[in-house]
Design goal:
Chain B: This is SirA family protein. The complex is a heterodimer of chains A (135) and B (77). With 135 residues, chain A is an alpha/beta fold. Helix content of chain A is 37%, strand content 17%. Chain B has 77 residues and is of the alpha+beta class. The chains are: A alpha/beta (135), B alpha+beta (77).
């Protein structure tokens, strides 16, 4: 079993947030530490004024069926999965300092689920022995 | 020894294991946790959880659509 998961959350489309939630919660359930580095287009979803989730254009035709299915099985949102994972496990959410600067985001603008704004050096050192997943 | 029932029927992955983890957090060694789930991945998932957390799987059976896992808590520190 891995020593931990380092998840780099870059994408800003709703479909990519599903594996973020599932992998994070699963790792927390198994006692595997998780460190999430939020950067790129994913960043606005970790602020207090979250945008509406959007799906990638090339899969637009699949969205209604997928959404209906997720509703039917009462799948929790990625946000709720992350929140619960933080409650039961060793999970930390960091926002990339470069992108925070570029978007003019301070700690006050970020959702309470975010632990801190950090640089890549801190993240790389903290997750040196972890497996890296890029989403 | 207390028996804790976790009704995870209708929950999709990783819901049943999350529900089990929640119950496990409040359990003590010697407790029995009974999980009922309908997620098709629950059987291999609960076996993996048992292996990882080093608890004891007393019984794993199918009752129609429902998979029932009977777990003895032995690995709490």
């Amino acid at each position: 079993m891995t020593k931990g998961l380092a998840i780099i959350m870059f994408s800003g489309t709703a479909d990519k947030f599903i594996p973020l939630g599932v992998l994070t919660q699963t790792a927390a359930n198994l006692g595997v530490p998780v460190r999430i580095f939020v950067t790129g287009f994913a960043t606005p979803y970790f602020t207090k004024n979250k945008p509406q989730p959007r799906f990638p254009k090339e899969f637009e035709d699949m969205v209604p069926h997928l959404m209906k299915g997720l509703e039917k099985i009462k799948a929790p949102s990625w946000y709720d999965m992350l929140k619960e994972a933080k409650e039961v496990g060793d999970v930390k959410v960091y926002v990339c300092s470069l992108i925070a600067e570029a978007l003019g985001l301070k700690k006050d603008h970020l959702d309470p689920i975010v632990d801190d704004i950090v640089g890549a050096t801190f993240f790389m050192k903290e997750t040196a022995e972890y497996e890296v997943i890029f989403i | 020894m207390p028996e804790i029932t976790v009704d995870a029927r209708g929950m999709a992955c990783p819901g049943p294991i999350s529900a089990l983890t929640r119950a496990y957090r409040n359990a003590q060694n010697g407790d029995i946790i009974v999980v009922m789930a309908t997620d098709p991945g629950f059987e291999p998932d609960v076996k993996a959880w048992i292996e990882r957390t080093k608890n004891e799987l007393l019984e794993l059976k199918k009752e129609g659509e429902v998979i029932v896992a009977r777990i003895k808590v032995v690995a709490k520190k």
